[in-house]
Amino acid sequence: MRGLMLSCAALCLSLVFLSSPADAKKHWTVTERQEALTSRIVKGEKSNELTKKEADKLRSRLSDINDHIEKAKTKNGGQLSYKDQGKAEKQLNSVSIDLEKYELQKRVIK
Predict the structure, then answer these.
(1) CB atoms inside a 10 Å sphere around CB 59
(2) Enclosing domain of residue 100
(3) Which of 7, 51, 66, 69 gives 20 to 30 Å between its CA and that of 33?
């Protein structure tokens, strides 16, 4: 029994010491998310997981989101308000979900 408790304690301690701050979830800025989505779209198009039409549609949506962000920033002294940031995050989530759907549709075996 005591050996089991020592093993569990050793395992817990090793997990604590082996985990690093890099393992923690990274908080992405809106700009970083836009760049990441853009690179995923390019990668998906090159790997034929996205058609040109799908990629263009997603790029257009990202461009629209960027336009809304820029307008919101000009109204708020160059900063994005929390409300506008939340809207942008929701829109980026939607693009991300649609990108994932398009990629997965190509992987389904018929």
Answers:
(1) 16
(2) 28-107
(3) 51
Alpha-carbon distance of 23 to 19, in angstroms, equals 6
End-to-end CA distance of the chain: 53
What's the rounded Cα separation, in Å, for the pair 20 and 95?
31
Task: Give Cα separations from 69 to 3, 63, 93, 96 (angstroms).
Answer: 58, 10, 15, 17
- R_g (Cα) of the chain, nearest Å: 21
pTM for this predicted structure: 0.72
Single out the residue of 25, 24, 92 nearest to residue 58, CA to CA.
92
19 assigned to some structural domain:
no
Would residue 84 count as lying in a domain?
A: yes
What digits encode the pLDDT tens for the residues 47-75?
989 999 999 999 999 999 999 999 999 99
**Token pair belonging to 63:** 């461009």
